[in-house]
Amino acid sequence: MPKFEVYQYTTRDPKARSMRIAPRWATRSAIEKLSEGWRASVILNDTETEIDDSHLDHNGMTEVGFEP
User: Fold this and answer.
1) What is the Rg, in whole angstroms, of the alpha carbon atoms belonging to the chain?
2) CA 45 to CA 43: how far, in whole Å?
3) What is the pLDDT of residues 1-58, one digit of tens each?
4) Is the dihedral of CA 33, 60, 27, 7 positive or negative?
5) Cβ neighbours of residue 23 under 8 Å, at least 6 residues apart?
6) CA-to-CA distance for 26 and 57, rounded, in angstroms?
7) Which residues does 51 contact at the CB level (< 8 Å), separation at least 6?
8) HSE of 50, CA atoms in CB hemisphere, 13 A
9) pLDDT in tens, 42-52
C-alpha cells in the first residue's frame, strides 16, 4: 500500500474565535487547500508521520480522532 506523510495542524475555531489543533490529521496538500479558505490552517511540521493510504479519505484527511 502507498505511504503518505500526514501532519497535525491548527485551524480556526469560529465558536471560540481562536486557533486550535484540528481533530484530524491530513496530508500537506489537504491542509494547504484548507488554508485557501476562511480556515487559515497552519501545518505543525514537527508532527510529520508516515501512514498508509487506507487511513485517508478522498480529501487526504484521516478520521476524527485518528492516532498514528
Assistant:
1) 12
2) 6
3) 789 999 999 988 778 778 889 999 999 999 998 877 666 789 999 999 999 999 999 9
4) positive
5) 64, 65
6) 9
7) 3, 4, 6, 25, 62, 68
8) 3
9) 999 999 999 99
